[in-house]
Write a structure and sequence with these properties.
single chain, about 300 residues, alpha/beta, D-Maltodextrin-Binding Protein, domain 2, Alpha-Beta Plaits, eleven-stranded mixed β-sheet, 9 helices, about 25% helix
Length: about 300
Amino acid sequence: MSHALGAMALSSEEPSAESPRISFLGPSGTFSESVVDYIFEDLAIHRSPQGTIGECVDSLRGGNAEYAVVPVENSTGGVVPDFWDLLAAQWQDRTWNLELDVVSDVSQHLFASAALVERHEEPTKIFSHWQALRQCRKYLDRIYPKAERVPVDSTAEAGRIAQEFADEPFAAIGHRNIGDRFGLVRIASSVEDNPFNQTRFVVLSSREAPKAGTWIDAAEHRALTYHSVESSGLTSVPSTLAEIEASRGWELTGCYSLPKPGYMGEYNVFMDWRTTSTDTGTHQSRPNKQGTYVVVDAYHRVP
């Protein structure tokens, strides 16, 4: 199940000192902030845009936010390694939890300055987050094959660059709201290659954070497991799956295998499960090179 990120009916209340602090992959105007609007639409909140996924997590670890919203996977561009590498490194000593996730339809749009449009000039550089550029690769190959593709930290940062250098032949790809935010002209809509383009976002919480949002009643139970294996041990993963399915009654919904940073032939393997049970604690065990799994978190999927 997914939803389209768009305008939400947000709380009109001003945040107070007790209002939750939400960090997200910024700056303001990113898809991550749209997820903040969706999840916390009924609450007055403090927004704290961060430059990287690592900084979002650090805001939880440092007590500067109760929640963090970050992207972790796209149906076209694949996984976002920054999050999964960080989770693999910190899962044993985390001070934060995986609270919930949401899968959203994502549409990318191409923007340029009014000056560039008035000159009827094609862009020579197109800026965006690397995931967005990858999601639009075939479109760019076909329409702007000579334009340089420049990855930046976020789609909103791409919009800011196109605004700041308005006299240059620059364009930006991103969320539909960056046009209004940065005074840019939309020159093409829905330029993603996959019409069913979707991104999965997760909401992380500090361990002291209260439950928040109106999603919990309709959310389904999920769980995430972690495996640490050498390449020779990857064959043990199917038996691990069978063990989990037989003893837990879980349905496998996703699997992510990433090389361990700095280790040739060793992998971090994460698996997502749908379950009707929230009792994961009795099945936790320390991962080892034979593929033993650990239940990292039980969480909820937002409808």
